[in-house]
Amino acid sequence: VEWFPSISPDGEWVVYAGETGARRHLFLQRVGGQNPQDISGAESTADDDQPAFSPDGKHIAFRSSRDGGGLFVMGMTGEEVRRVSRAGYRPAWSPDGKQLAYTIEKVELNPQNAVRMSELWTVDVETGDARRLSMLDAVMPSWSPNNRRIAYTGRMEGANFQHVDIWTVPVEGGTPARVTDDTENDWSPTWSPDGRYLYFSSDRGGSMNLWRVRVDESSGRRLGEPE
After folding, report:
1. In terms of pTM, does the model score above 0.85?
2. Rounded to 5 degrees, what are φ and ψ at 112?
3. Does residue 212 contact residue 225 with C-beta atoms inside 8 Å?
């Protein structure tokens, strides 16, 4: 299994999680290259997963089981590993590289494997100070490029757990705005670099495929139909 890819800001490198024996390690590979490097270290017995390049490309945030588990940050080639938080999954960097958004529910491949309500948090990368942004269900966060909102996948409390939509919330906290509201599964939002669109996976139209929707980054208001 090879999953959770993250491309460096300069487009030259990709980091991803892959299984090696009974463990998951992080691998760094040049785009177009053929020789991935195990940056977790071949001797590591921890599970490392869900990597994300920092905006300057110098660091990688990731989830790990090491030392009791949590979120960690390391240099691009695996050096200077340090803990940021003892909780969290799917870290997403703020545009200035000073914070990480994360959620508390472990979700990997499918919307339907979620079994409990999650929460959205942010943490200061240097100090470790954490802040809860929303108690509504939230997984798979994505920070907008102009530092205005965080997009995520979520369900309404009491709703069918197999029905998930795309939401956004202001980075300082506040009332979430719903981007999609239908019976399809909308999954794993990612902002476009200019902040004008949210790209996401959805089973609308049949099998799971890639879609996008125009969004006002300031208000979270949807500006058109998904395409």
Report:
1. yes
2. -80, -5
3. no
- HEC letters along the chain: CEEEEEECCCCCEEEEEEEECCEEEEEEEECCCCCCEECCCCCCCCCEEEEEECCCCCEEEEEECHHHCEEEEEECCCCCCEEEECCCEEEEECCCCCEEEEECCCCCCCHHHCCCCCCEEEEECCCCCEEEEECCCCEEEEECCCCCEEEEEECCCCCCCCCCEEEEEECCCCCCEECCCCCCCEEEEEECCCCCEEEEEECCCCCCEEEEEEECCCCCCECCCCC
Beta-ladder partners of 152: 167
Residue 46 structure tokens: 């921890």
Give CA–CA dist 223/215, Å, rounded: 5
- pLDDT, tens digit, 9 for 90 and up, residues 55-91: 999 999 999 999 999 999 999 999 999 999 999 999 9
Q: Which two tokens stand for residue 141?
A: 């966060």
